Model the fold of this input.
Amino acid sequence: MDTSFDIESFFNKFSCDCKKAQRKTFSKNQVITTYIQKRNQLCILLSGHADLVRYDLNGNRTIVEHFSKNALFGEVFYQVTTNNELLVEARSSCTVLFYIYDQLKEPCTKNCEFHSTLSEHLPELILNKITDLNTRIELLTQRSTRDKLLMYFSLISTRKLSKTFELPFSLTDLADYLNVDRSAMMRELKLLKEDGLVEKIGNRIILLYE
Amino acid sequence: MDTSFDIESFFNKFSCDCKKAQRKTFSKNQVITTYIQKRNQLCILLSGHADLVRYDLNGNRTIVEHFSKNALFGEVFYQVTTNNELLVEARSSCTVLFYIYDQLKEPCTKNCEFHSTLSEHLPELILNKITDLNTRIELLTQRSTRDKLLMYFSLISTRKLSKTFELPFSLTDLADYLNVDRSAMMRELKLLKEDGLVEKIGNRIILLYE
DNA sequence: TTTTTTCTGTTGCATAAGTCACATATTATT
DNA sequence: AATAATATGTGACTTATGCAACAGAAAAAA
Done:
């Protein structure tokens, strides 16, 4: 998520005196939070990468959302509908700001600069979240595994402004993100290579079309 | 979407003097808007039902989102990634409020009551939109057609607080919404009936489990 | 009303995609 | 450096889902 406003460096300069925010760091694979209704938690990812992951009763794992710098997450945004486990897991080492949504909304009595600036930028951050979610839906509504792969590659390619890029996921995770079986995805990836649409060197993807 | 705040009746009482909003009505199947980047349009559905529909090059139709009373939509929320057509179509007769997002943000000079009240309630409306999108993702990440149907039924059932309910979609539309082939969905629906999980009388679904 | 259009329900068939299983490569951990 | 753990790559087999086609029902238009 690319925002002109860099929350992390801003937070470092004007740390929040009002004590409404908690800042924590996490190492890879640690659980950042779980989604349990009622707490109304709102989190901001200051640095690193994290995933919202769902484990269902059949042992299937789904990466519901992927978060990078400046992303918002937390159960304020979530109506927990199923009784599946929903965890946010750190994909790399992460720094996270924890808020209670209702406290964030009401004006800060201490009038600390960080708090007011964050409120000012909140609409922008939220709009980014919504477009991310809509893009996620576009991806998931692709009909075939091939279409999902091609759209996913194209998204990263335009974001990186290059036909060559590193995958931010392992292939196992990518399958869980695209909601397809891993071995089926591998097969399709091979076909894409055979059809001369894609090249893959280690973790690096090269798009050969257009 | 159930909000305590009813925009429609409020708008009727204190109609917006500042002329920033345009209110229009649409009849069934009319195109309310198309998603073209740059205009930054934000729309509010005051009454009726509408769908965001995508037509791809193979003639496939996808219902990307379904909107009901108080729903927000428009291209502010959308990063148009593919070159597919994206239309919002009225499913029933609709009343829609059109805004330009940037104008909505800045404080109203005329200080009209509607405008300020809307701004006040905007965070709540936006939060609803985000939880809707997340629920949509939950639905789309169900693995099988059966799971999609069961989750969809369960969502409506909890919303209506009843194991018996009318489908707000035709079966053709439902298939486009669940992103599955219609005849495959019909087959699965038959199996659900045969397994004694669901009963269907006309447009009415009865859940038989739990 | 009659006619036309769209929706529902069902089938046979083709194929995309899931399941299982295993070998090798790569990455963590001790 | 040795061992364990996890990720990648691939193949044989099964199954779910897509596709095409059609008849009857329901809804919309004439």
